[in-house]
Specification:
alpha/beta, 150 residues, 7 strands, Rossmann fold
Amino acid sequence: MEQKIIREWKKVFQSDLSYIVYELKELVKAPAMIILEGDLGAGKTTFTQAFLESAETLSPTYSILSETRQVLHADFYRLEKSEDIIPLELGIYLENKQFFFVEWGLKYARRLFREIPETFSGYVLEIKINDAADASLGSRNFVLTSLKDD
């Protein structure tokens, strides 16, 4: 997979997420698949909530997929192999969607590009906690990269 850095944000606090969301919407070409990468507790679901402007958005860890407005949100933490993606029929869910957020999806990127509509561009948003000692209050660094299937 070919990746190219588009934008980096340093020392981002939760109160800053609306600015990151605004910039991200300007930087990505929709419809877009955005793979969210980061350790447990890094803020992948929190970022998605900020993007949707809804704190009620739950992590789809147990249901795998969650639909909201123009967004499909997936959590592949429990998937064991890339073939587990096929029965999800992502193409059906992604009709008329502008964004597809995938937590824990980078290792499945090749399969994802086969399953999503060709009109979708691909990105990775990596989130890293700066101060692991106090993850709830600490800042994060965000790196947005383009992602292309080679």
